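Aggregate trends can hide what the representation actually does to any particular protein. This step matters because it turns folding into a mapping between discrete strings. For completeness, the protein is quoted in full, as a sequence line and a line of structure tokens:
=====
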Amino acid sequence: MSNREALRELQTRLAQRLQAARTESRRASWLAVEVAGVGLLFPLAGAGEIFSVPPLLSMPHTQPWFAGVANLRGGLHGVVDLGAFLGLRAAVPEATREHGRLVALNPLLGSHCALLVDRLAGLRGAEQLQPHLPTHSSAQSGVLPARPAFALSAWVDAEGRFWQEIDLGALAANEQFLGIAA
């Protein structure tokens, strides 16, 4: 099986699991992604479709974290390099453009936007995670360096990996996020 077929199969399984998770009970469940080595959790209610990174049309006079505009299923979406927006890196590495993924925001959020992430890490449920209780020694715990208003709870999985939950609705309404003009 080629890498392309394996990737397509993974994306199909993830899409099926996302749909099944949306129809299940209202317990907490997330799409887990990685951005510049930081684990992030997107609540399934706020996440939309997942796409390979298509050609991006760069836009002049925009913030460095605004990667450009993409045609996703016939609709134009602004693409935000989430790592650069969060201050985790300066610019999108070429490997991210080639192997990264776009997570479109749920259309119900009213934002035609997709987030460029480095890697999909599957789905997570509340039963797989424990709340992270910050201590003085957890400064380099792998959660975001600064806690913006759209950063919710921090979690730890069974392997000890930290995951930061992101409220995609609050992110989409964030003044800085909306201010793409440079």
Q: What stands out?
A: Helices lie at 3-23, 82-85, 94-99, 168-173, 175-178.
